[in-house]
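Input/output pair, single chain:
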Amino acid sequence: MNWNAQEVDLYIQQKEYIDTLVIPLVKIETTAEKMKASASSSDFLMYLAKFLEAQFKGRMMFTPPASYTPSFDAEQIVRTIAADFKDSAFKHTFFMTTDPTLATVQLEEGQVIWLPSIPIESMEPNLKQKIMEDQLQQILPIFTEKWAK
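Output:
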């Protein structure tokens, strides 16, 4: 499910089944030489989020991406968002990012999933699909381990 008015209405009706919140974290580079890589990482992360949402529609809610620039304390952003959702009806909170500086962040409530960015902008659709399926196989054990607890 996506964070939009129609699907939030559906979530409210069925929240006992939708126990997982996923928050994409997008680092926006501000220097010209890093913008292209930053945009490519954002494309990859948002495409993966869309793919995961389609796979787990009745189980996960995806928020809009939380974006930040290099001058922000990204770890503090993650901690603040996790704290804000601590008392929500979501049993599990995951942050997805391609920012390697967040790969080792440990949270009391929630978990950061770091993924290396793959440039997908010029790939054929069937290759993109295969890449997303491979990524799903990489992160599925992270979700299922938390769901099993």
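The longest helix spans residues 32-55. Helices lie at 5-14, 32-55, 74-84, 125-148.
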